[in-house]
Amino acid sequence: MTVVDDRPETAAPAPRRRPNRLLALLRNSWRQLTSMRTALILLFLLAVAAIPGSVLPQRGISPEKVNEYFVDHPDWAPRLDRIGAFEVFGSVWFSAIYLLLFTSLIGCITPRLRDHVRALRSRPPAAPKRMARLPQHTVLPAPPGGATAIAEVLRKRRWRVEVRGDEVSAEKGYLKETGNLLFHTSLIAVLIGVALGSWYGWSGNRLLVAGADNAFCNTRQQYAEAKLGPRVDSADLPRFCLRLDDFQARFLDSGQPEFFNATVTVDGPDEATRRADFSVNSPLRLNDASVYLLGHGYAPVIRYTDRFGNSQISDEPFLTTGDMGLTSEGLAAFPDANVDPATGQRAPDQQMAFTGIYLPTAPEQAPFVRSQYPTERNPALNLVAYRGNLGLDAGIPGSVYQLDQRQVRTGKVKEVGTKLLRKGETWTLDDGTTVEFLGTERYVTLSIRHDPGSTMLLISCGVLLIGLMGSLFGKRRRVFFRVVPADPGEGSPTSGSSLMEVGGLPRTDYPGFADEFTQLIAAVKGGDPAAERAGVREGAE
Amino acid sequence: MSALSDNLVTFAILYYLIAMIGHAVEYALGNVRTRVATAAPVRELVGAGGGVIPTPPAPVPSPPTADRSARKARLAGLIGVGATAVAAALHLAALVTRGLAADRMPWGNMYEFVLTVTFIGVAAWLVVLWKRPSLRKLGLFLTLVMVLLVATAELVLYVPIVPLVPALNSYWFVIHVSTIVFASGIFLFGVVPAVGFLMRNGYEQGKRSFPYTLAKRLPGAAGLERLTFALHAFAFPIFTFAVIAGAIWAEAAWGRPWGWDPKETWAFISWVVYAGYLHARATPSVKRNVATWIAVLGFLTMLMNLFGVNIFFTGLHSYGGLD
């Protein structure tokens, strides 16, 4: 972002020629946009625009909370939705602010980059005629070697030195501008990294129940929810399969989790077959994807035996309700129950479903609604049985974790009983069919992602930090030395030798320059810095 | 050990209070001194031309009563500094014992977080004071902030010791949280000279209404402004690093480096505001008091992130421990 104020006014245009109005307008708008004032306003707007993103629920983070907000504020929510308040960071106005800011940034650093390259290649300028007007100035006896000796000392101290006859000009601290440009350029690189990630990246969330039958392969259909970047096709997903072999969790007596670990078998054309462990904070890194452990729970294994003696098993995961004891709710549906094996005839009103609450550690007495500890110290499954048409054939998409309440309301599904089952217990229903609670499987909640922009993001963040430090702590400054023959009339301390006039100019805000100037002169003279201090006087501002 | 830590915090608050009273007494007695010392204006810590080697002000002949009063004021101020140092030592001991009792770094919840941030703030203050004793009078404002924040931590945010949840159990916890705490502590300290500058600047421009009169005995505005900038320029890269470290950790723990979680959003806001401050200060056309207001605003966003986000919003950074 250009510090406009520092720039000299451009020469006035030729007086008689009429300027092109459109061109002038464009040029002025561009100048306005790339001015520091505009950049500051845009920065401020960016900060303000981000606030609603933390106050209002966001679709990208918690879609269910957005739905809740719609229910709680039916009149406000649609209006807010229209202006993108639930997707602040993808909204037009937020994007407009940061794109304008980045345009302003590019418009500012491009000329500065050009100037800086020129400055890096050019030699330090000639010493000013009247050095006494510089902020730092002094006159001292010159060292024996004259200009060459001075230049030597300066070079050793890593100044960029130019000797012109009896004059030495030196400059240091180019790192400040280099760092500044590096910082701003890497901000652009960060933005590109984010863009790459969102265009070419993909992600999906899934529950994975333990056991070979529940293995999952990385295809679009296998995800409960998947987000593919605009440049990613379903066919681009890397081919691999995961099977959950084991899940270990350790908890404190208070129920607070202490340790999680999932063991999976990885397999598939794009992966070497192997066993792998991963946990919270250390994801499973595959070739073109990473697998993150987000949560865990229990999948009760329920066997239903119908009127014809056919058994079916459900091991659908029960979702945790968010309490410490891992109380979980879920559904075991048996739409193919009570199909006559002789005729193959389906009886649509004889489908079975069980909704249930699973308590890993059930309390000693009723009510059996809340588990007391997250591990299975006293497991119990509280089931409600339903019989009728589950409505699964209607083709209306429904949750696999919840019974379709419309069917219950219309009476197509009827409740036929409630029972608390311990592990291994069997419950005989009114029609003689049985349901058995066999035990549980562990399941894990996984997030599987690929972000091709992450490497670029990491590198540009590192460069950003280096640039930032150079820009904040670098100090650009110039010193000039002029060796002049000692005036015989003045009676110099070392008669017969020459004098040197020294001037110093800090080009940026640099409170410690006077000290450095003093030390530098001492080094050039090869004398004691304390003695020189008296000779250094502060120049005019 | 845990109870010891709690007691140490209480004593630290007590000593901060004593320090505040000491500084306040110096302020009150300072009346006479400033009247006398008008001939030799308060020494500026850094000359306007940059790096003036400080020379002691010429002795001003003063009536004996005023001299005695000035000596009393100085004594009160030194008591304030001493009490601050004792309080800081107790504060550190409280953190160490808390960490030993929990068998981890004491940054697991909001109580511990605020306690550490305030300690960094006071430690940075003592270091700066050591280098520039002329700033002593800022101590009144600093100890006021310390009393308020540490007492808030003790009375409102206190939670018993619990181990870390698995999500926090990572070496990134140490890297990310320590740097955030450190940067926050410096920003916290930085707001003291910032507010001091705003008041003193108004005073020097001839404003004599309420908040400006408080600045009558503060060090010169230019020096305060320079200190404000130095602290912010020091803390900003650390804060940037901390946010980047957080993003790297978030990638490993939650699968994405940046997800606009409320805490992340507010860290972004703070970062943008502080970046605005640094830009504004580097721009000659922006007045220094406007720039300093931006720094104060930045601190308010940090406070919002610490208290507001932990208490009002739910997000992945819900480590406040307050239910």
Automatic annotation (TrEMBL), chain A:
Domain annotation ResB-like: ranges = 36-517
Query: What lineage is on file?
Result: Bacteria, Bacillati, Actinomycetota, Actinomycetes, Micromonosporales
**Listed transmembrane segments:** 92-113, 181-202, 455-473
Question: Which domain of life does the protein's organism represent?
Answer: Bacteria
Q: Where in the cell is it found?
A: Membrane
Which keywords label this protein?
Cytochrome c-type biogenesis, Membrane, Transmembrane, Transmembrane helix
**For this chain's UniProt record, which GO biological process terms are given?**
cytochrome complex assembly
Species name: Micromonospora inaquosa
- Tell me one Pfam family matched here: ResB
Could you name the Gene Ontology cellular component terms for this entry? membrane
InterPro entries (alphabetical): Cyt_c_bgen_Ccs1/CcsB/ResB (IPR023494), ResB-like_domain (IPR007816)
Q: In its UniProt entry, what is this protein called?
A: Cytochrome c biogenesis protein ResB
Q: How does it sit in the membrane?
A: Multi-pass membrane protein
Automatic annotation (TrEMBL), chain B:
Q: Which UniProt keywords apply?
A: Cytochrome c-type biogenesis, Membrane, Transmembrane, Transmembrane helix
GO molecular function, a single term: heme binding
- Mostly located where? membrane
One GO process term, biological-process aspect? cytochrome complex assembly
Instruction: Please tell me whether the keyword Lipoprotein is annotated for this protein.
Output: no
- Locate the Cytochrome c assembly protein domain: which residues? 107-317
Name the InterPro entries for this protein: Cyt_c_assembly (IPR002541), Cyt_c_biogenesis_CcsA (IPR017562), Cyt_c_biogenesis_CcsA/CcmC (IPR045062)
Q: Tell me one Pfam family matched here.
A: Cytochrom_C_asm
Its localization reads: Membrane
Asked if the keyword Magnesium belongs to this entry, the reply reads: no
State the membrane topology. Multi-pass membrane protein
**Annotated GO CC locations:** plasma membrane
Please give the start and end residues of each transmembrane region: 12-29, 75-96, 108-128, 140-161, 173-199, 227-250, 265-283, 290-313
What protein is this chain from?
A: C-type cytochrome biogenesis protein CcsB
Native source species: Micromonospora inaquosa
